[in-house]
Design goal:
single chain; mainly beta; 4-stranded antiparallel β-sheet; globular
Length: about 350
């Protein structure tokens, strides 16, 4: 199951995917390519949560890669007991030398309740905005058919019900600390999978995976408050899509289904001009949306984040094998990862 891809300053590609598929045994792996994706390294990093005795399996299923303005590579990943334990945990590990022969990764840090599937957005004022989804209660599931106390498991973490939505976390110190800034409750939410872009007037545009396809909301105060969500004119099935501002200043939208010419005007508030992108079998894709280039981000004042308690404890990388087809462990330990050169 593919999670994400990013490119580092010297051109290396990094890819992240989930081993064992969308299952209770899921774990995250990273590989790299130095020839534009023609060939790939062996697995260079594995993040594989350790199971606890008498508890549902602990898994990693959601995450992404992101190269920040300083050229550092961030790997966001989640952990949860079972399919979803009501809280999960959004973690991050960072590599400051991603183009070196032997990249090194920091000890993982838990930054929020929930999970991050999509990349952060850097605002013109230097703030970083991170999309963090805390799933709704109907997603709580131990995923173990023989788990003895499903009812109690599904009743955990009622204290978080007020923020079960597409949350926005912000950092004003280049990722040292993160605080929840705001969020949107989308109708018929299906894991949110939200993305944010900054428009030419400084307002924010959020798109999310919702009950009817894509839903959208806007913010004019840096993500603290958001408009009532509406169905987007951009048609897409109830599936993942991608929205991103490129280094050129263009907006790139990748969606499922046929090209919807009627959706082009919906991009006008976010761009100077709009052209559709056409993809045909055996042909290359061309065109996106042209927008003005954003100012170079600048650092703003330091902000201290409220500390967040952890379901799984402080994550410290320790060695472990990088290849397996299944996991059966009984001794409790902290989340573990292993880097390989």
């Amino acid at each position: 199951m593919i999670i994400g891809l990013d490119r580092t300053p010297k051109g290396r590609l990094w890819a992240a995917w989930i081993g064992n598929g969308d299952s209770a045994n899921g774990f995250l792996m990273l590989s790299s390519s130095d020839n534009g994706g023609k060939s790939w390294s062996k697995t260079r990093l594995v993040i594989d949560p350790t199971d606890l005795p008498g508890k549902p399996n602990r898994r990693t299923l959601v995450g992404n890669l992101w190269t920040d303005p300083q050229g550092r590579l961030w790997c966001f990943f989640d952990q949860s007991l079972g399919m979803f334990d009501g809280r999960a945990g959004d973690w991050v590990t960072r590599c400051d030398n991603p183009d070196d022969a032997n990249p090194t990764w920091s000890a993982p840090v838990r930054i929020a309740d929930g999970c991050t599937l999509n990349k952060p957005t850097v605002l013109a004022n230097g703030d970083w905005l991170l999309p963090v989804s805390l799933w709704t209660r109907n997603q709580i599931n131990p995923w173990n058919r023989d788990f003895p106390d499903v009812a109690t498991f599904r009743n955990h973490h009622r204290d978080l019900d007020a923020i079960r939505m597409a949350n926005v976390y912000a950092s004003s110190d280049q990722g040292k600390t993160w605080t929840r800034r705001g969020g949107v409750t989308f109708p018929g939410t299906d894991f949110d999978e939200h993305m944010i872009v900054e428009r030419k007037d400084g307002s924010l545009w959020m798109l999310a995976r919702a009950g009817k396809g894509i839903s959208e909301s806007t913010s004019t105060d840096g993500g603290r408050t958001w408009s009532t969500p509406t169905d987007s004119p951009i048609k897409n099935p109830k599936a993942r899509f991608f929205l991103r501002r490129l280094a050129s200043g263009n907006l790139l939208l990748v969606k499922n289904g046929p090209v919807d010419v009627a959706a082009a005007p919906s991009l006008q508030p976010h761009a100077l001009s709009s052209r559709r992108m056409t993809v045909r079998p055996g042909a290359r894709a061309s065109c996106s949306t042209t927008v003005p280039r954003s100012p170079t981000p600048t650092a703003s004042k330091h902000r201290t984040a409220r500390s967040t308690s952890s379901t799984t404890g402080t994550a410290t990388p320790t060695p472990r094998s990088c290849s397996r087809s299944s996991r059966k462990r009984t001794s409790p330990s902290r989340p573990r990862s292993r880097a390989r050169s």
